[in-house]
Amino acid sequence: MDRYNELVELITKANYEYHILDNPETLTDAEYDNYLRELYKIEGEHPDWVREDSPTQKIGGIVLDKFEKVTHNIPMMSLADVFNEDEIYEFDNRIRKEGINPKYVCELKIDGLSVSLKYKNGLLVSGATRGDGVVGEDITHNVKTIKQVPLKLNKPIDIEVRGEIYMSKKTLELLNEERKESGEPLLKNCRNAAAGSVRQLDSSVAAKRNLEVWIYHLPDPEDYGIKTHHESLEFMKELGFRTNPNNKLVNSIDEVMQFIHAKGEMRESLPYDIDGVVIKLDDLHDHEIMGNTIRYPKWACAYKFPAKIVQTKLNDIKFTVGRTGQVTPNAILEPVMVMGSLISKATLHNEEYCVTKDIRIGDVVRIIKAGDVIPRVENVVMEMRDEHSKPFVFTKECPICGSSLKKIDASYYCINKDCSKKDIENLIHFVSRDTMNIAGLGDAIVEDFFNLGYIKKVSDIYHLNEHFEDLKLLEGFGEKSIKNLTKAIEESKNNSLEKLLFALGIRYVGKKTAKILAKEYKSMDYLMKASEEELNRIRDIGDVIAKSVYLYFQNENNVSIINELKELGLNMKYLGTESDEETAFTGKTFVLTGTLDSITRDDAKEKIESLGGNCSGSVSKKTNVVIAGHDAGSKLTKAETLGIDIWNEEEFLNVLNSYL
User: Fold this and answer.
1) Hey, CA dihedral for 454, 455, 457, 463, is it positive or negative?
2) Could you tell me what percent of the chain has a pLDDT over 90?
3) pLDDT over 80 (residue 329)
4) Nearest of 432, 436, 431, 444 to residue 476 by alpha carbon
5) Is the pTM of this model over 0.85?
6) Does 109 qualify as catalytic in the annotation?
7) Which of 305, 307, 256 minimizes the C-alpha distance to 279?
8) C-alpha distances in angstroms, 545 versus 327, 497, 525, 556, 561?
């Protein structure tokens, strides 16, 4: 077994030098191959010897039935985007107004998929996607196949780090060559290819995709005595993580602009895709001064490179109907590649947009991907216009049912309650991932079921089991797939109230607003009785939303739908972690620091939140209590300085146990 352990350490070191340091010194290629073959041979003869951190564990082979959900202890927040120099200088001015003389760290914004990696005693225990920032998906089986992800760190510590999984341009090129030869559809761009690879249930597929990763964020740096973001990058590098060498510490916003210009020029020559530059305050104390919004940290922003513009012909303008009845013009384009994606359609927004830009069928137009995401028609190449072209005229009739449209503000709406397209879009929205999340009911299937008469309204979804024998006769629907679908439908009945509120399609009520309403009223019955004035008093609920919600529940048809869903067994209550009972934790913000002996930090956070408390990763004036285990660091010192209540582990457990 000594030889086995020697080989594991030797090959792990060689992997670190090659994939992290980009400087192989320990082994030649031939030696590496020979030692790896010897390692496989030993593990084949002694399978009980196989270590979790063995290099052989990166080959893949684990196959999952589905992805498990993972709750992030510290939310994985997005970054606020800025698109020009003025907005960058405004960002700097906001920071200086707080009395900060800033230093910044500039980083490349990698165009990939965010990932969280957790280690216990230096060993990788989990990898998760960002998801919605609070709940992601467990992709540990695929993360282990990425060569730059260490299975074992250089120090036996507990830590979480975050980064970006991506696919290199060369890997995508080679992969598409293979797919072309085998007759498979080509992958459109590096980001989509990486995201699709990470979400493979079979890890051997992900292993063959040759994914890579850069690590760029340490969520809880103060636990390790770190005071700046730049120090955290160096610390993570020392542990064995791969950090991007293009990061730079700068002393002024002018140096930030120099960095942006330089990286913009070298963008195409990089072996991987970037879509901008991330700008972060370096001093972690300054992070606390700036704080966060609900979605973004105020101490960082992401500058997006100007979108790439290409020219193509606008062959037609088609009108589509959304779930609210809004009719939108869409450009049907001669297909053209933009930033690695083949674009054949683009939004034209509304009548005013088309008229102001004088967009006509047959025009040669410039297509732009704003923020490298949403394609739109930027303008017309007037010198190439056909002299016989006709000015744009917005349709006066619904393209689906033929009803007359009504103009509300800048948009036209189909107000026919019997318009089938609106019903289909409503159903698609109801079952989508962010709402009731019914796996197996994709857009095309919903439309097919609607046209076949199985689903005409949302309550029909919960009667699909009554059509079991009929569904089995449809192409592509076996007994197993139908059982899985009916199971997913049944499970959706247990969703928390905010999911249902978003699913109902109340105008102006998105995912965030639905959560606010659910937390405030706790049940559908209470929310339905709320007055417009009462709704308007809720923080983040303005006049427009309050009126929309109030009027929705005054509509008898809407109330009838809700009552029908209630009778079908759908949950009508908020299932969040807030406790109805007033406790010593209710409404207070807690920070955990140091090592706890009798309870894990994750369990402690879960208990606190279940009793109405909130957990934060940093100490500030808003912190109510710091729970300090042994070897507590700078967070404890700061809490003492600010005069914040400090509980040791025994005090915490005593208070906790009084409610459990």
Assistant:
1) positive
2) 47
3) yes
4) 444
5) no
6) yes
7) 256
8) 21, 18, 19, 19, 21
